[in-house]
Amino acid sequence: MSYPATRLRRMRHDAFSRTLMRETVLTPGDLIMVAFVCDGTDRSEPVASMPGVARLSIDRLEQLAGDCVAAGIPALALFPAPGAGVKSEDAREAWNADGLMQRAIRALKRRYPELGLIGDVALDPYTTHGQDGLIDEHGYVMNEPTIAALIRQALAQAAAGIDFVAPSDMMDGRIGAIRAALENAGHIHTRILAYSAKYASSFYGPFRDAVGSAGHLGKGGKHTYQMDIGNSDEALREVELDISEGADAVMVKPGLPYLDVLYRVKQRFGMPTFVYQVSGEYAMLKAAAQHGWLDEKAVVLETLTAFKRAGADAILSYYALDAARWLRAG
Ligand code: PBG
After folding, report:
1. Is 298 part of a structural domain of the chain?
2. Which CATH number is 315's domain given?
3. Paired sense of beta strands 54-56 and 44-46, if any
4. How far is the CA of 176 from the centre of ligand 1 (A)?
5. Can you say whether the dihedral through the CA atoms of 79, 247, 225, 257 is positive or negative?
6. Is there a contact between 205 and 198 (Cβ–Cβ < 8 Å)?
7. How many domains is the chain built from?
8. Alpha-carbon distance 167 to 328, whole Å?
9. From the CA of 101, how far away is ligand 1's center (Å)?
10. Among residues 253, 266, 286, 308, which one is catalytic?
11. How many whole angstroms separate alpha carbon 296 and alpha carbon 318?
12. Could you confirm whether 297 is annotated as catalytic?
């Protein structure tokens, strides 16, 4: 039946009928807050390229965690920004039981056991060269030696009480190896969020400033392990492998420029599928908002809703806390 019998604007005429037919409704329960932890007490070090985001000492991080719980956010993704003094060629600080990350995990789980905690597993905050893995004499990131280090890192986080380990390194075979190591160590409830389709994106720049890996990385890129930006069939292969190796949830990263990939992954596998609205996406939105060029609340909620509409079950975002509060305020 065509116009005027069918007239799609009739349902858009009033707020009530728009509400009734809305297919995708974003809630705080869809959101995962992202945070950076640094040494010290009562410290908040602003990240210049991410206005509104700071590296927080553990006591300040606990306050942020409390705010997340109060706002109805189910989980926090944690990234360490350790001091330059602990960085090394072999990244051994990553599995120090008393290292910054492990102390932060214990403190947060003690104070807010109900808040899910997701720990980044990759070596870049800990290496002097800023790569996610261990390098050979040519600077090439070696797969198997890196996996051995990632296993130690994942086990250290699991021992500290992490709920989810989230390998963001893109080595081949690391999900299976980490799963086996967790089982052997008795960490049968520790989940794995696999950064499965992680692209060699230029949208990570502000993050590298935040964890202090940018200067170390210099001109060295990550193109020999992160995915080529032109590919999406390859993303499905990556996801398929990670599922077969035991991933509990898979992730697409970055977010908005890769909505097509997110959609394909969710359609194909029906897995718990997370998406990461990365630092560069945050920086773009924040910069435009600060100039008064965009309505911050409206555009942020629009991007987050778009992720959910495309198939995301959960969304990692530096805007998660703001968004949850905006949603609660109606
Ligand atoms: C590295 C890692 C990166 C991000 C998360 N984990 C950066 C990179 O791959 O260089 C980026 C997150 C963001 O940009 O917000 N293991």
Report:
1. yes
2. 3.20.20.70
3. antiparallel
4. 21
5. negative
6. no
7. 1
8. 32
9. 16
10. 253
11. 13
12. no
Cβ atoms 123, 143 nearer than 8 A: no
Q: Give pLDDT tens digits for 307-329.
A: 999 999 999 999 999 999 999 99
Q: How close is the Cα of 205 to the center of ligand 1, in Å?
A: 8
pTM of the model: 0.97
CA distance 252 to 240: 13
In this structure, is residue 43 part of a structural domain? yes
d(CA 161, CA 323): 27
In one-letter notation, the amino acid at residue 108 is: L
Ligand 1, pocket-test mutation among 53, 101, 168, most atoms within 8 A of CB? 168
Cα separation, 36 vs 57, whole angstroms:
9
213 C-alpha to ligand 1 centroid (Å): 10
- Whether residue 70 lies inside any domain: the answer is yes
Q: Is 208 in the pocket of ligand 1 (CB under 6 A)?
A: yes
Q: Tokens for 220?
A: 């060295």
**Mean pLDDT, 10 residues at a time, the chain of 330 residues:** 94 98 98 98 97 98 98 98 95 98 98 98 96 96 98 98 98 98 98 98 93 75 96 98 98 98 98 98 98 98 98 98 95
Q: Identify whether the C-beta of residue 215 lies closer than 8 Å to the C-beta of residue 189.
A: no
Of the candidates 87, 198, 266, 308, the residue annotated as catalytic is 198
Q: Is the CB–ligand 1 distance for residue 207 below 6 Å?
A: yes
Domain that holds residue 237: 24-329
**Residue 1 falls inside a structural domain:** no
Q: Which of 53, 124, 134, 281 to mutate to test the pocket of ligand 1 (most atoms within 8 A of CB)?
A: 124
